[in-house]
Each structure stands twice: as structure tokens, then as C-alpha cells.
Amino acid sequence: PVVQHNPLPPSQIPHRAKSLRTSNQPLPRAAMDASAAGAVAKAKKYVVGRKLGGGPRKKAVARSVKAGLQFPVGRIGRFLKKGRYAQRVGMGAPVYLASVLEYLAAELLELAGNAAKDNKKSRIIPRHLLLAIRNDQELGKLLAGVTIAHGGVLPNINPVLLPKKTAEKEPKSPKKAAKSPKKLRKKSSDICACRVLPNANVSPM
């Protein structure tokens, strides 16, 4: 059998009582201000990274400045994430990598500057970079498979191709001493005297 309920008329239902406001009437100004203030307070509650009722925001400090580095920590971190080298990248990874790269660059520039100074140049060129790398054992091992454009090669000549050095030199023959001009004058005067003497008795040979 179907049970029929006899509902009460709408006027007698408490929760469906007639509201104070009809659908066509706007909210009063005080109610609108209260609702707006509540919405703003609710939005402030969920603001991330800012204190409620705090003063102006502090100036942002770069991570390179915090670490005391010249290489960009933020950019290196972005490249690590973009390259997908790992699923997750820690906060210390870009700082560590930036410090390693800065150390290698400083070491290479110092050696290249010394090479330029040795060649009496004030500007570093690829030739100086190659000389700095190849003359250093650790950098040469690290960059063994790297080719530097316009770097050239290390100066190296096989000892077999060099000219042989003679151990014993031949003694030089002593030069004859030049005759003094006085003796020459005496001889010439004697010859002249022999020619001038008259009636010289010459014994036959």
C-alpha cells in the first residue's frame, strides 16, 4: 500500500519561512561593505610568503650574492631543470655547480694571462689558452679531447732532427806573425845600396 504524507503548508514550515528580503531588492550598503571586507580578509589569509599586516616587502637578494659567487646560480638551476638531467634537482646543486665552474674559469684565465704576459701581450688570444691548458697537467687531462680553434700546437722538435753538435773541434792553425815594417825598410835600403855602389867586384860563382 502507498503511504501518503500530508505535507504542511509552506507558511507553517520554519526553515522555509519568508525571508526578510525579496529577490528583487538589493542588499543594503552596510551589508555590502561587510561582505567585501570579509572577502578581502579571506584573501589575505591565503597569501603565501607575506606576513599579515606587515610593512613593505624586503628587497630580493640573488642566490649568487648569498653564495659569494660571480656565476649565476639561478640561471644554472634553470638549465638543470630544463635539461631534465634528473627528476628532481636540489637547492644546493646549482650553487655547487656554479662554484666549480667559477673555479675552473678563474684557474684557466690566470694561466692564460701568464702566457700572454710571457709573450709580451696585453690581450688573451686562443693561442694563450691552448698553451695554458697543454702546459698544465690537470687541465690538460681534463680537456684532452678538446680542440681550440686558432690555438695551434705546442712547439716540439724531435731531437733526431736537430743538427749534431761536434764534441771535438779541430785546432785552428796558428797564423803567421806579420813582419814589422822596420825590417822591410832595412831590406829595401840594403838592396838600393848594392845597386848604387860602383865597380863592385863580384866573385864568379
From TrEMBL:
Q: Where is the Histone H2A C-terminal domain?
A: 138-169
Please state every residue range assigned to the domain named Core Histone H2A/H2B/H3: 59-134
Q: How does it assemble?
A: The nucleosome is a histone octamer containing two molecules each of H2A, H2B, H3 and H4 assembled in one H3-H4 heterotetramer and two H2A-H2B heterodimers. The octamer wraps approximately 147 bp of DNA.
Give me any GO biological process, just one. heterochromatin organization
Q: In which compartments does the protein localize? A: Chromosome; Nucleus
Pfam entry (one): Histone
Highest taxon listed in the record's lineage: Eukaryota
A single MF term (Gene Ontology): protein heterodimerization activity
| Matching InterPro entries | H2A/H2B/H3, Histone-fold, Histone_H2A, Histone_H2A_C, Histone_H2A_CS
Q: Name one GO cellular component term.
A: nucleosome
Ranges of Basic residues composition bias in the record: 174-186
Name recorded for this polypeptide = Histone H2A
Keywords tagged on the record: Chromosome, DNA-binding, Nucleosome core, Nucleus
Described function: Core component of nucleosome. Nucleosomes wrap and compact DNA into chromatin, limiting DNA accessibility to the cellular machineries which require DNA as a template. Histones thereby play a central role in transcription regulation, DNA repair, DNA replication and chromosomal stability. DNA accessibility is regulated via a complex set of post-translational modifications of histones, also called histone code, and nucleosome remodeling.
State whether keyword Ribosomal protein applies: no
Chain intervals for the UniProt region annotation (Disordered): 164-189
Protein family (similarity comment): Belongs to the histone H2A family.
Q: What is its main location?
A: nucleus
